[in-house]
Amino acid sequence: MSPAKKRGFFFNVMDDKKIKVREPKKVAIQGVLGAFHEIAARRFFNNHDIIIIPCDTFEQIASAISNNEIDYGVMAIENTVAGSLLPNYNLLREHPVKIIGEEYLRVKQNLMALPGQSISDLTEVHSHYMAIAQTRQFFKQFPDIKLVESVDTALSARKIFEKQLVGKGAIASELAAKIYNLEILAEGIETNKRNYTRFLIITHNNNTDDLAIKPSKSSFCFSLPHKQGSLSQVLSVLAFYDMNLTKIQSLPIIGKEFRYFFYVDVSFDDYTRYQQSISAIMPLVVDFQMLGEYKYAIESLESIHNQ
Length: 307
Fold this sequence. Notes:
By secondary structure, the chain is α+β, with helices and mostly antiparallel strands. It has 3 domains: 10-106 and 195-205, D-Maltodextrin-Binding Protein, domain 2 (3-Layer(aba) Sandwich), CATH 3.40.190.10; 110-187, D-Maltodextrin-Binding Protein, domain 2 (3-Layer(aba) Sandwich); 217-294, 2-Layer Sandwich (Alpha-Beta Plaits). 27% of the residues lie in helices and 34% in strands. It has helices at residues 36-44, 58-66, 86-94, 129-139, 153-163, 174-179, 230-240, 271-281, 301-305; strands at residues 10-12, 19-21, 25-30, 50-55, 72-79, 83-84, 97-106, 110-113, 124-128, 146-150, 168-172, 183-187, 196-204, 217-223, 244-252, 260-267, 286-294. Helix 4 (129-139) links the parallel strand 9 (124-128) and strand 10 (146-150). The chain is elongated.
C-alpha cells in the first residue's frame, strides 16, 4: 500500500456521528472484503465515497496509517463474548494514531455455500475459530459436518467461491455471501444472539480532517506511581467531575514487573467538566497519553440488536 494520500473535506449527517466524504478516502480493515470490519466501516462512513483496503493484520493497519499510506483504519477493540483484543491497545499507544470515532455492530453469523446446495450436502464448514466457537451448538444437529478453522470468516467464503468448492460451507457475514455469490443456508446461527463488537475508527495524529462535532467520549491511558491507593485516587477524581467510566483495561508494562498501563474510556455530557477532570488527574498519573476524543456511539443496544 503506497498510493499517495488524498485530502478532502467532511460535513456532518443528521445523526451527528457518521460522516460523508467528498473525495474517496482509503479505509483499511482487517480481513478481506465482506469481513465484519468492512460492515462497520461502511456504517460509520455512511456508505459514501470510501475505498476499502484489506489488511492481514491490525499491525498492518497501524503501520499504514503511521506512514500516511491510508486515511483511516477500522480496528476491533472489544467483543461482548470474547472480551478485549488486548494487542490492539498497545498498537494505539505505540503508533502515531488517534481515535476519531467508534461503531458498534451486532455479529450475526450465517452458514453459506455455493448455490443449489443444502446443509445435508456439506461435509466441511470453514471459518475463523471464534465464529466456529460461537456456532458450535448449531452444528451439534449435524454431526457429520467437520468444522475447520481458518484465519478469517470472509476469506473462507471467498475461497469457496474462487475454487468452486462443492460440499464445503463457510460461516460469515451476509455481506460476504453477496460479494462471493454464495447462498445462505441458515442465518443467525450464533448461540448468543447478543453478540456485539465495538470497532474504533482511527487516523494519523496529524490528520486535520476530523469530525466537526462536540465529543462526548474519550479514550486515554496512563501508568501510576507504585504507592497505595493511586488508582483509587484517579477514579475518585473522575467520579467527582461526573465522568462515566465505560471501560478500564490494564496491561503489563514490559520490563517493569507487576506495573501496568491503564486504558480508560469515559463518556460525558459537559466537555468543560471533562477537560477539568483530565487536568485534575495529571498530577496523579505517569506517562499520560490521550488516545482520542469522539462521539459516544452506543445510544441503545436494542437499536443495534435490531439492525
